[in-house]
Amino acid sequence: xxxxxxxxxxxxxxxxxxxxxxxxxxxxxxxxxxxxxxxxxxxxxxxxxxxxxxxxxxxxxxxxxxxxxxxxxxxxxxxxxxxxxxxxxxxxxxxxxxxxxxxxxxxxxxxxxxxxxxxxxxxxxxxxxxxxxxxxxxxxxxxxxxxxxxxxxxxxxxxxxxxxxxxxxxxxxxxxxxxxxxxxxxxxxxxxxxxxxxxxxxxxxxxxxxxxxxxxxxxxxxxxxxxxxxxxxxxxxxxxxxxxxxxxxxxxxxxxxxxxxxxxxxxxxxxxxxxxxxxxxxxxxxxxxxxxxxxxxxxxxxxxxxxxxxxxxxxxxxxxxxx
Length: 323
Fold this sequence. Notes:
about 25% helix; Rossmann fold; 15 strands; Quinone Oxidoreductase, Chain A, domain 1; 10 helices; alpha/beta; 2 domains; seven-stranded mixed sheet; about 25% strand
């Protein structure tokens, strides 16, 4: 089969389209004929091995433990292990696995769900990581409630676009923060208000929010807290910038420590990939409350370009690789 493979950590130049052996499913595996794969910031971190914390948590100290990139997946079930009870050959599924930038991939049953009937494979591949992260940031870390005022920073990005839609589905008043070129997109997905950060400062003290979901990953806690109500909650999704050891994740670590001493709840979000969250999202998607925002689709051979474009901030919505 064809797959995007890397043998060493590095920039997109280390990725190669190669012919490799197709995976063989074990007793607890679902073999998927991949039709599309989502591209998220995590792909870049696993490709580069940065920050070094990424390597320490189990992805390979000196070289990638998993050579095939990609994690979000949508496709058809090709075969199932003998312990699999929830899926059968021919089912259209979506979820997460290791190595989705390939023609075939194996996934665990607990990380898959039946694909929403009203989505294409491309659309479905944009859901599993970004939408689940947004859901857990709002519901689990943020404890969102109807009627709250919610600020989503990075509202036109992969996670941010879902956070806007999900917050609206939970009954919140939503303000999205984005650049000038993306304000129309953020309004179109349901934001009640949009702040163009190139012209306006959301943390100037003129307005405070019950819940802030920060997906942009580079603003200091002191700035974010100025826009947060005294008893409000900040949910930090991921982290960019910073040093090579922890990258931007030191903000999440610092938030947890500071939260002990202040009235505001400050939380870092480490999303867990669970089938029940995918099924919850399927209900919202099939009801029309949530729609994936696809910035651009790429052929498998162009997966390196997809990662580069995402990292450079050139996309409105999410990148998807089609196979």
